[in-house]
Each structure stands twice: as structure tokens, then as C-alpha cells.
What does this fold into?
Amino acid sequence: MIKVGIIGSTGYAGQELVRILLQHKDVSIVWFGSKSYIDKKYSEVFQNMFQLVEESCLDDNMEELANQVDVIFTATPQGFCASLMKEDILSKVKVIDLSADFRIKDVSTYEEWYGIKHSSPNFINEAVYGLCEINREEIKNARLIANPGCYPTCSILSIYPLVKEGIIEPDSIIIDAKSGTSGAGRSAKVANLYCEVNENIKAYGVSTHRHTPEIEEQFSYAAGENLTINFTPHLVPMNRGILITAYGKLKKQVSYEEVKDIYDKYYEKEYFVRVLEKGMTPETRWVEGSNFVDVNFVIDPRTNRIIMMGAMDNLVKGAAGQAVQNMNLMFGLPEQEGLKLVPMFP
It folds into this structure.
């Protein structure tokens, strides 16, 4: 059995990790870390865990935790994991960080966009960006995984094949993204109160959202050149889900069949990426509660643009599910183990 410790287990992503790992036949959760609920029974924090989890919450002592488990998941705010990272810890245990601390390779870019000083930049180059469909082989041998952000996961998987194959002008990409309120985390914020969110949709972080450099960096690797995008997220009144609609200018005239062949080339053998049939558009309700990403595209010859679309659950493939997918690869387990979650409907 793989012994698991979760730091930040009482946030939305942390609770989702618990939900998924309780169904994983090769895993035993031995540490439910939480700064806010130390000594409180986990099932009192989340009543859905009643009679499923009997343990109480422990503190965030990563050094002590590293002596007890095989892998640590950190579902914590930006800056926390980096502040604790040491060679002594990584020499004992694998770490999968769900924050942005190790996603961006350029330290100055991270510090500019996140507004904090990086506490352990010496580990950034070692960290593997944990997008399994792109970096599978590197993930298998990693000690430290930078679990991708939710918006970047959906955006990259929806657009990546066409950037990689040079079908679209790299600097023409515009991404319009929408997310449910769980993407903002569980801490109390006035902007996330029911009366503030219900019957409303709004753009936020316009031209300044912190996932922008993460998406740009990954697309730059794919394109082989530095790339700049427009990324605008929106908050919508639902619990879960991300929908992205992206636009790119075509370099040349292409047919539906040519583009479909490109998507199939990259994703035909990928269990968790579903390329929809012609005319179908991704919808969040068809991926809710699952690790699937549904993608599709439409060619608009009138504007010489291609419209790329993607939908996924921000807490599963956008956070906890992808983290478990990374863990499976790191420990030589079947990649789908514990993740064959049928989307919930209604």
C-alpha cells in the first residue's frame, strides 16, 4: 500500500483528494493535514465522510510527515509548499504540489504575477509540470510534481495539438474561460457569497490573471518560440466545472478532417481526453465529478479562425484527479487506477 499524507485536506481540492483516494485500492491515507481544524474529526469538517474517515486532522508538519508516508500532496495556498521544501524531505518522499509554486520555470515571472518571493527556487528546475498527457515519461521518474492549474489544464489540452503542429498563429490565441465558484477555494470571501454570485456572471483578473504566464510558458514550449496570449476568466454561478472557448488565426486553409486527424494523433490513446464527434460542443455537465476533459473545434472560414473548446471538472482533472493520475505514474501503477469516475448527471 502507498502511504499518503495530505496537507490542506480541508480545502475543496484536499477534500476531493480524500474522496478519490478512499476509492483507490493501492492507497492508505495516514495524515489529514489542516491548519484550521487541528484535532477536529475529519468527518465533522465534511459530513459526507461520516463513517468513512474516523481520523482527526493533524498539523502541517511536512518534516514529520515525510518520515511516515511515501507521497505528500500539498493542496495549499501559493508560497506554502515552497517555504517548506528541503532536500531532506525530497530524499525521503515524493511531493505533488497542487499550488503554483513550482509550475513556472522563471522565478522573476512567478514573483511578478503572484506578488510573493519564492522561498525555494533551487527546486524549480527539478519540478516536473504534471500534465500527464504531455509529460508522462518525465513524471514517472520525478520526485517533485507541479500539478497544473485548472484553467491551464483545460486550455492547454484543448489547444496544444494545434500549437504543436503549427496550425495556428501562436500570438493570435484568445482564451475565454468560465469556472464554477469552487475554483476560488473554500475560504470566506464576500465576492463568493451566495447573493454576490447567484444570478450573475462576471469577468475577473482581466489581463492580470495568474494562470496567464503558466499557459504562455507551456504553449511556448510547444511552439518553440515565446508566445503571448489573451486570457480572460469568468465566474459563473455553479459549484464545479470549467468551460473554455478559444480562438486562433489559421496559418493556412485546413479541412475538418485534417484538424480532426491532428487531435486524434495526440489523444486517440488518451483515456481522459475525449475528442467529441463533429458538431458536438463540450458541456460541463457531461464531465462533472470525473477526470475527463471533453474537447472539440469548429473551423470558421469566414474569419480564417479556428474555435477550440474544452470542458472539465475543475476539482478533479483540474486539481485532485490530475494529482492522483500523477501519483499513479510516479509509482508505476495503471494511470486510470482510482480514477474511472463516471461523470455525474444530473
The chain is about 30% helix and 20% strand.
